[in-house]
Design brief:
- The complex is a heterodimer of chains A (359) and B (281).
- In chain A, a hairpin with a 2-residue loop joins β1 (196-199) and β2.
- Chain A has helices at residues 2-6, 32-37, 40-58, 65-90, 98-116, 120-145, 149-172, 186-193, 206-224, 226-236, 238-243, 248-274, 285-295, 308-326, 333-357, and strands at 196-199, 202-205.
- In chain A, 70% of the residues lie in helices and 2% in strands.
- Chain A is globular.
- The two termini of chain A are 40 Å apart.
- With 359 residues, chain A is an all-alpha fold.
- Chain A has one domain (40-176, 184-351): ABC transporter involved in vitamin B12 uptake, BtuC.
- With 281 residues, chain B is α/β, with parallel strands linked by helices.
- Chain B has two domains: 1-85 and 169-237, P-loop containing nucleotide triphosphate hydrolases (Rossmann fold), CATH 3.40.50; 99-168, no CATH class.
- Chain B is 34% helix and 24% strand.
- In chain B, β4 and β5 form a beta hairpin.
- Chain B is globular and about 75 Å long.
- The chains are: A mainly alpha (359), B alpha/beta (281).
- Chain A: It holds the Pfam family BPD_transp_2.
- Chain A: It is a multi-pass membrane protein.
- Chain A: Part of the binding-protein-dependent transport system for D-xylose. Probably responsible for the translocation of the substrate across the membrane.
- Chain A: InterPro entries: ABC_transp_permease.
């Protein structure tokens, strides 16, 4: 055994390491500004500020308080869904069915309550179960078959899209559901999912509050809990995570169910805000959610990201969507604007993180 | 130093594994004692990986017996193996490169505090413990927040070993820990293997380098084409014999004769079959 004892340690410590703790002397602390810039959340925050300032200048009506409330509302409907989509993305997967799943949830609640003439809360609960079940199905199929999430959720996306239209027509004979405004429990549910409150004479939608609450909760879970640790691990290296005892199957499936929960929440908002649901809507929204998460600094391949980044990402989208209207431009430009923003934000993020992490 | 009178922690009795109609492993006997380093040697495709996958709970054996503490077991997840005190340091080290060192250290066994709805990671304590444990092993890192992917191969290896030792492993499986390392770094890893053994662990050291194996090994098993070719303790085998077995053993002798017939290769220096005395048990 003698030889092994003679081997030198690989980590040699410099002779004069100062009065503090022993250090290996191989890492140098980079300046704070550079370290901050290296964080993708800061990049998207600066982007959001830039877009905000741009519209403040280009579209004077934006400066009004009620316009701002409107922009925040628009951002929150994207943002609430962007959060679970972002967590799922950090966990290494994405969900193409998220957009139509919102409508599925709203349709389920509406039709269950109306057709059975029951309290709307029955519909709301059934919709929650259905949404979680769709999420579970996505996750379970993914884990069991090992297929990529693109394929699995593309399948569910098409299925839900078809089912939404066909079942709605079958049940109501129409492409939209019946108005449930005067049913039992409607006002109560509306208070939770779609009410407004007054802040200094400006009506703010309650979804803005929910959005920020969910964002704070998601941030806490991601950074401060076991489950958050697992999310990063299954997205960063699934095999390693499994090998050290992380419940990979549970984490993946529950992340998909979290997206289901988000779809249910936004679906309930739409139902109680507009009283009826158009069965063909929701297509294309999933890409908006994914784009918001990516702009927010979540790595498309998993393993890195935050919950606060997508908040700014969603705000950028809401800002542009409403800003174009307030500026008096043709709203058809919205999608083109989004595309440019997505590419721009991604490139700037890439450039900034490369510059800032250079050694 | 070696206490062979103890009963083995892990024991394989003519264990085998078939993937469909492919027999990856067949009739393997192995005993792992505490305070001992059991080396498993073999060329690529010899079945080393399959063997450790069975012991670590990633795969299940299809024939023979697998005993822990004398009781037959069949693990369905690595978690179960970990709960029995069998920890594996994989070739790819089972770390998540983008995650900080301390998060990797505690991944899957995180420390928490607080009652359920607000149960959260005890970050302070985890960082402190990780730092302490790493220093115990002689690894000094400035910044435990740095992604583990930025460490060198040897450092990562040692972090992984320190992690296994900290979490109370009784059996430590090391899958080719020195394969991708330089000379000096290999030395460090071998030192930690000896350190882990002296702390009372049973170490299973998988390698295809007989020199590394012989430096720390107490018992040697050579696998070839999925079966056990040699199973000998340190006093039954010399480094030369071990090297010969690794290089192809009896097959090499046959090759030698063939070469001699083809074109007068000087085969005097090559060993004779009689030199390879250590027999497979």
């Amino acid at each position: 055994m003698g030889m092994t004892q003679q081997a030198e340690p690989a980590v040699t410590t410099p002779p004069a390491s100062g009065p503090g703790m022993e250090r290996d002397g191989r890492t140098k602390q980079r300046p704070l500004a550079l370290r901050l810039l290296a964080r993708p959340e800061i990049g998207v925050f600066l982007g959001a500020v830039a877009v905000f300032v741009f519209f403040l200048v280009a579209a004077p009506p934006v400066r009004d308080g009620s316009s701002m409330a409107n922009i925040l509302y628009q951002s929150s409907t994207i943002g609430i869904m962007a959060l679970p989509v972002a967590l799922l993305m950090i966990g290494g997967e994405f969900d193409l069915s998220a957009g139509v799943a919102v409508i599925t949830s709203a349709l389920t609640a509406s039709m269950t309550a109306y057709q059975l003439s029951m309290n709307v809360w029955v519909g709301v609960i059934v919709a929650l179960v259905v949404s979680l079940a769709v999420g579970f199905f996505n996750g379970w199929l993914l884990v069991k078959t090992g297929l990529p999430s693109f394929l699995v959720t593309l399948g569910t996306f098409l299925i839900l899209q078809g089912v939404n239209l066909a079942v709605t027509k079958l049940v109501t004979g129409n492409v939209a559901t019946d108005d449930i405004q005067d049913m039992d429990g409607f006002d109560q549910a509306k208070a939770i999912f779609a009410s407004s409150f007054d802040v200094g004479g400006v009506q703010v939608k309650i979804t803005v509050v929910w959005w920020l609450v969910f964002a704070a909760l998601a941030t806490w879970v991601l950074i401060r809990t076991k489950y958050g640790n697992w999310i990063f691990a299954v997205g960063g290296n699934k095999e390693s995570a499994r090998a050290v005892g992380v419940p990979v199957t549970f984490t993946k499936i529950s992340l998909f169910m979290l997206v289901g929960f988000g779809a249910w929440f936004v679906g309930m908002h739409q139902l109680f805000a507009f009283n009826t649901v158009q069965s063909g809507e929701g297509v294309g929204q999933e890409l908006i959610y994914i784009a918001a998460a990516v702009i927010g600094g979540c790595l498309l391949t998993g393993g890195a990201g935050s919950a606060i980044g997508p908040v700014f990402g969603a705000f950028m989208f809401g800002m542009v969507q409403q800003g174009i209207v307030y500026a008096g431009w043709n709203p058809d430009w919205f999608k083109a604007f989004l595309g440019v923003m997505l590419l721009g934000a991604t490139l700037i993020n890439l450039w900034v993180s490369r510059t800032a992490t250079r050694r | 130093m070696t206490t062979t009178n103890d009963s083995p922690v892990v024991e394989l009795r003519s264990t085998g594994k078939a993937y469909g109609n492919i027999r990856a492993l067949h009739g393997v006997d192995l005993k792992v004692f505490p305070n001992q380093v059991t080396c498993v040697l073999g060329d690529n495709g010899a079945g080393k990986s399959t063997l450790i996958k069975i012991i670590s709970g990633l795969h299940q054996h299809t024939e023979g017996e697998f005993l822990v503490d004398g009781r037959p077991v069949r693990f369905s997840t690595p978690r179960e193996a970990l709960d029995k005190g069998i920890a594996t340091v994989y070739q790819d080290l089972a770390v998540v490169p983008l995650m900080p060192v301390w998060r990797n250290f505690f991944l899957g066994s995180e420390m928490t505090k607080g009652p359920w709805p607000v149960r959260r990671l005890d970050i302070e304590k985890m960082k402190k413990t990780a730092d302490h444990e790493l220093r115990e092993m002689g690894i000094v890192l400035d910044d435990l927040e740095q992604p583990i992917g930025t460490l060198s191969g040897g450092q990562r290896q040692c972090v992984a070993i320190a992690r296994a030792v900290y979490f109370g492993a009784r059996v430590l499986i090391l899958d080719e820990p020195t394969a991708a390392l330089g000379v000096k770094q290999s030395g460090v890893v071998l030192k930690y293997i000896a350190a882990a053994r002296d702390r009372g662990l049973g170490v299973i050291f998988i390698t295809h380098n007989p020199h590394h194996a012989y430096m720390v090994g107490d018992h040697f098993s050579v696998l070839r084409l999925g079966t056990m070719e040699l199973n000998a303790s340190r006093d039954e085998v010399s480094l030369e014999e071990l090297t010969n077995h690794m290089a192809g053993g009896t097959e090499l002798t046959a090759l030698k004769h063939e070469l001699a017939q083809v074109r007068g290769v000087d085969v005097e220096e090559l060993p004779e079959e009689s030199d390879l005395t250590a027999t497979a048990s």
